[in-house]
């Protein structure tokens, strides 16, 4: 299952496809007892996708067989024991993908000539992904970080490893020419290579970067690094061979501090915007400004959801079962704002006060 949405991956997902490109969405759950319903819901929503394919006169028998086969292969790849909060299946002639999201999605089946990406985009923004690079003299490990976890990432040549054995160490020690580990030129070159590899990762997947390592390793990166020099340094050694939980515990205080700092910055921006009359709040008002590309900063409470319908002039509250209900309007707003260059920030629930779950600072 896919987790990391890069700009290149999003561009690929959004390209037009031969009809039918099928998007299947279903909420999932991480823990008991709620996760007991997940296999049934997945089975039912995939059955609904097959039913729509059967009923669509624009879908030939050959295309239907191809896409149904892709759906079956996608379902076979899903391991619900590792489910997060939402699941998205994409299937089209000759291809399929499965995405696990750390954000809930509405249950839905869409047949179109493009895949439905707004929920992926919103989940990526809400998760505030980051990289952790754990550095030692003989191993550099890359970790992919999200809302409450990290996992080792095999990308860009990582993990980088080397042997610390010096075949000439005995002679160098005899004549007093054996440098300390982090003064050794081989170590310096090893960390330069790690810095270069990390630059490539950040070019394709730009995110905040945290570096863990012993103080001598971090000092050397300050001297020779580029992107690793600019990353946030955490003096904690032993994590290049550590467990995901150990890495998460090491970086968690700094991640939490950054989240508090971001929430405070958002609050100040919104207060200032109120005074300048460049402030919008509530789904209807924010959506109208987002549609016009006027949102400069969008703030969303982490678990805020709204179901609405369009009455022609405004978005009004609706029930989930209504035929014209839009159950993921918040994700629509997030995607639209990102497309128009807005800074999108998620804040703790209740952090927006009377702004009704979503607020924006206008460009003009």
Number of helices: 11
The SS-based structural class is: alpha+beta
- Distance between termini? 41 Å
Average of pLDDT:
91
Number of strands: 16
- Give the SSE string: HEHHEEEHEEEEHHEHHEHEHEEEHEE
The main pleated sheet reads as: 6 strands, mixed
Report the sheet-strand fraction. Answer: 15-25%
> What share of residues is helical?
40-55%
Integer-rounded radius of gyration: 24 Å
Which parts are unreliable, with pLDDT below 50 for 5 consecutive residues or more? 169-179
What sort of overall outline do the alpha carbons produce when their principal axes are compared?
Answer: globular
Distinctive features:
single chain, 364 residues, alpha+beta
Structure commentary:
- This protein has helices spanning 7-14, 38-55, 61-77, 118-127, 169-174, 185-204, 215-224, 227-230, 244-276, 283-291, 329-339; strands spanning 21-27, 86-92, 95-101, 108-112, 130-135, 139-145, 150-152, 160-161, 209-213, 232-235, 279-281, 295-301, 308-310, 315-317, 343-347, 358-362.
- It is an alpha+beta fold and 364 residues long.
- Strands 5, 6, 7, 8, 9 and 10 form a 6-stranded mixed β-sheet that branches. The protein has a 4-stranded antiparallel β-sheet with strand order 3-2-1-4, sandwiched between helices.
- The longest helix has 33 residues, at 244-276.
In short:
With 364 residues, this protein is an alpha+beta fold. It has helices at residues 7-14, 38-55, 61-77, 118-127, 169-174, 185-204, 215-224, 227-230, 244-276, 283-291, 329-339, and strands at 21-27, 86-92, 95-101, 108-112, 130-135, 139-145, 150-152, 160-161, 209-213, 232-235, 279-281, 295-301, 308-310, 315-317, 343-347, 358-362. It is built from eleven helices and 16 strands.
């Amino acid at each position: 299952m896919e987790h990391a949405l890069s700009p290149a991956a999003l561009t690929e997902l959004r390209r037009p496809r031969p009809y039918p490109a099928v998007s299947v969405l279903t909420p999932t759950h991480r823990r008991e007892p709620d996760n007991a319903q997940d296999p049934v819901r997945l089975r039912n929503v995939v059955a609904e996708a097959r039913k729509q394919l059967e009923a669509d006169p624009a879908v030939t028998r050959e295309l239907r067989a191809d896409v149904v086969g892709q759906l079956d292969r996608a379902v076979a790849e899903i391991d619900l024991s590792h489910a997060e909060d939402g699941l998205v299946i994409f299937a089209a002639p000759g291809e399929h993908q499965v995405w696990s999201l750390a954000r809930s999605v509405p249950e839905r089946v869409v047949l179109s000539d493009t895949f439905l990406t707004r929920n992926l985009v919103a989940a990526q923004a809400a998760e505030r992904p980051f990289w952790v690079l754990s550095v030692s003299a003989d191993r550099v490990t890359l970790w992919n970080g999200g809302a409450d976890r990290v996992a080792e990432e095999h990308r860009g040549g990582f993990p980088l490893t080397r042997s610390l054995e010096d075949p000439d160490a005995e002679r160098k020690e005899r004549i007093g020419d054996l440098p300390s580990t982090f003064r050794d030129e081989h170590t310096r070159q090893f960390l330069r290579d790690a810095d270069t590899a990390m630059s490539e990762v950040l070019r394709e997947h730009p995110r905040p970067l945290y570096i863990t390592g012993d103080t001598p390793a971090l000092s050397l990166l300050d001297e020779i690094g580029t992107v690793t020099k600019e990353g946030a340094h955490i003096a904690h050694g032993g994590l290049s061979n550590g467990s995901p939980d150990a890495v998460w515990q090491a970086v968690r205080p700094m991640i939490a501090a950054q989240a508090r700092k971001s929430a405070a910055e958002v609050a100040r921006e919104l207060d200032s915007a109120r005074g300048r009359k460049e402030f919008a709040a509530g789904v209807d008002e924010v959506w109208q400004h987002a549609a016009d590309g006027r949102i400069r900063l969008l703030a969303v409470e982490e678990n805020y959801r709204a179901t609405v319908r369009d009455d022609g002039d405004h978005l009004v509250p609706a029930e989930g079962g209504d035929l014209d209900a839009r159950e993921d309007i918040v994700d629509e707003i997030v995607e639209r704002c990102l497309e128009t260059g807005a800074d999108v920030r998620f804040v703790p629930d209740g952090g927006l006060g009377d702004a009704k779950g979503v607020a924006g600072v206008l460009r003009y």
